[in-house]
# Entry
Amino acid sequence: MGHDWGGTRGNATRAGLRIMLGASCVVALVCGGDGTSGARLLTMRPHERVSSQPQAQPVPTLVSEMLDRPVGVPDGDPMAMTANVGDHRVHASWTYIDGLPGLNTQIDSWLLGVLDAAAPAGTRYRPAMALNAHQPVNQEMTVSAAPVQAAGTIVVVREKVKGPGANGTGAVRSATVYADTLTGDLRSGADLLRPESVPGIQSRITGVPAGIAAPSQQEPPVTDLLLSPSGELTVTAELPGTPGRQVAMTLNAGDARAALNDYGRHVLGQLNAADGPRHATAPALRHVNCDIVPCAALTYDDGPDAQTTPQLLGILNEANAQATFFMTGSNATANPSTAKEVADAGYAIGNHTYSHGNLTKLSPPAVKKEIERTDAAILAATGTAPTMMRPPYGAADAAVQGAVGKPLMLWAVDSLDWQSKNPAVFVPKVLKEITPGAMVLMHDVQPTTISGQKELIASLQGQGYRLVSVPQLFEGTPLVPGHVYRSRPARP
Ligand code: NI
# Structure
């Protein structure tokens, strides 16, 4: 990543100039555990000293609610899951932001780091842990990454972990990440500050807990900094030696300006600027990490059909489910407006050959022709040629693989929907065979397949599956032309 997320920067200059943050500081205790201890802290008497700075008076305001309130981001994709990881029941919620791959990757690696750390020693987190995570476990854990500020070209995401901590005290860690929607630039909260202003802020934080927590010689990490458009800077940190309790300290605009570096002042300018560029990636291509959430890719072959395919689109749209359509060139030619409807709704489309023959019975030039005619038909109907294909009947050999010029996307679960023509048969079959990362084969030209989709989708989502497109399923793993894929490979 190249960024210092540990928040220890500035230590090198600790011996240098110490900025005295005077009477303008507002200090509040933020409780990290449940709400009850927060209420207790609110009863702190106003004359109590919370700092060694003589001018500072505590103004006990419970700021955690304000700080954690996510802001709406037009390009945001909110995600949520519950997973049983070792002894921990993890409630995770986070938001990807379209057009910011660097930010989304940072959120993913942070989240995977938290999940891996919660797993039993010697093991790693697996998406299957987020399936049917209803049974109670010992420890509750909340993990969140939410946009808390979005203005100009800046989006600020607060990443927060509330864990069980020592003796169930509820340890809290939080950090802010600053992303630029124009350049993709990614910084940590600490990057807002002049290094020499960090020790002064740290000493204010360690000075706070007099009478509430034991004094600590440890330096609190200064990683959670939230700049407001009016220039106030709120620093939130866990009290060293006191897991579960965070201090939030707000510097007024004047003191904040003195503490900010050039980047911090740039951010402040952006928080008062007109909104930056917006992104609109097709839903089937939006970022999802299937190493984190348990994913399944529903795929529908042999269409488009002018009757059944639009019915399916309605069901998918209502369920907020992504899917992939492997179309034949002949049907795309016969029903171009339906093909376009699928593409316009943002679903993924693959090449299923023109005439749906067994490719192993064709010469390589004939295979190529099947692929090219289908690409042309889908391009003519939708404006985009497919980049992946599925051979009819899954029939492929080395000659076919060499001729198609695209990755061959087969399946891990065969519904046999065309055979049973009965949702009472194929829905339980899929539910029994599904595993995280699987592609599921169905056919949108079968009316009985459409009849079973509401139940199938609701059951999968109820188990914790995220229904994704094939490109989403394989995001981050290369798809090589001529190679055969059935499911997403597990994280090594
Ligand atoms: Ni087929």
